[in-house]
Amino acid sequence: MSDEDKPNLLRVIVNCAEKAANIARTCRSNEQLLALLVQEKSGAEANERFEHDFKTLADVLIQETIKHEVGALFPAMQDAILGEESPSFTNQLGESVTIAVGESVEETCACLEAVLSGHEGAALALAGEVHRVVNFESDKLGEIPELPEELDFANLGIWIDPIDATAEYISGDTIFTDFPGITSMGLDCVTVLIGVYERDTGVPVLGVVAQPFGSKLEENTYNSCMFWGVCLPSLQAHNCEFEARDENRRLGIFSSSEQSEILQRFLDLGYEFAFSAGAGHKALKVITHEVAVYVLSKGSTFMWDTCAPQAILRALGGDILDYKASVEEQKAVPIKYLSEDSDSDPEWKRNAGGLIAVRNVNIVEELIAKLGEQ
């Protein structure tokens, strides 16, 4: 494929995010299928912060679908498309199956049938979504910009979180906060995160965050909400022009497990608190200007959680910072996506220093000064 014929990477990722949302909705709309798909993560795949962390076939299938589609169109990126999930899955007979997207619906369906232990209808429905041609359109999507011709695809990598807030995806129970539009639990917290970064610098340059259940049309029927941003030296663009919730109120969003002493320091600065599930969802609330800051002092997020929203925030003039490094050095230290320690450090994918996500970097100095007080 010549450079002239190469499709727009941003448009491809937007369509992949919508395909991911379609798969997530297909799995979620059938309780029997959902129950069949849920598996609990174990060992190295488990996030220690949660009592229960889940892996679903939807997670793995979405991830492998995105890798297949982007890798086919951009072969120079193929070896650097990374995700949260391992592609292996154990079916109800105890057989280990590696999820792979075939060249046809029939090939993919045969693979899924091995996982679903003979549930042919479910396997066919999912395979159909994998191979469906998707072209996402919405009046809120905005105009997808042409990317610079000099973009070096061989220097780009991707981090995928196929379904962020998997526990919320499975339970579906919605609980609202005291702030309209911000839920603490439920399907609204579920996001698909696809972030593109430069392999040599580790800087995120393009991100898409999709909410598969962002717009409820009727019972069990949803449309996606789609957010994107590009931050390259020669191009900054996004579809995230939002008015602040209230310029006179300071609101931060946190995990319910955040340390009380951290919350007290925000209280001292005049912040109110919202508590919510899903790292992607909390970062999205910063993107949409509903909160000023998302802070997590623990190292319980990973590169796949932050790459996409960080790219969007950078396009907006914000960023996602390493909490520990920024407080210790008393300057903004952005999170970067480098794999140089991948052979020696099994934790290289973890954002070990925590994070501070802001839409306006001008508030960082005050925050890190307060957080650094002894």
Describe this structure in words.
The chain has 374 residues and is α+β, with helices and mostly antiparallel strands. Helix content is 32%, strand content 24%. It has 11 helices and 17 strands. It has helices at 9-28, 31-37, 57-73, 105-115, 120-131, 166-171, 260-268, 279-287, 303-315, 323-329, 364-371; strands at residues 38-40, 54-56, 81-83, 88-90, 96-98, 156-164, 175-176, 183-185, 191-198, 204-218, 221-232, 235-238, 250-254, 271-275, 293-296, 319-322, 355-358. The strands form 5 sheets. Strands 3-6-9-10-11-12 form a 6-stranded mixed beta sheet, sandwiched between helices. It has a 5-stranded mixed beta sheet with strand order 14-13-15-17-16, sandwiched between helices. β4 and β5 (96-98) form a beta hairpin. α1 runs antiparallel to α3, α4 packs across α5 and α8 runs parallel beside α9. The protein is globular, with a radius of gyration of 20 Å. The model is unreliable at 48-54 (pLDDT under 50).
What can be said about the biggest beta sheet? 6 strands, mixed
Distance between the termini: 58 Å
Low-confidence stretches: 48-54
Number of helical runs?
Answer: 11
Give the spatial strand order of the biggest sheet.
3-6-9-10-11-12
Q: Kindly provide the radius of gyration, computed on alpha-carbon positions and rounded to a whole number of angstroms.
A: 20 Å
Number of strands: 17
Instruction: Summarize the helix and strand pattern as letters.
Output: HHEEHEEEHHEHEEEEEEEHEHEHEHEH
What does the overall shape look like?
globular
Helix/strand class: alpha+beta
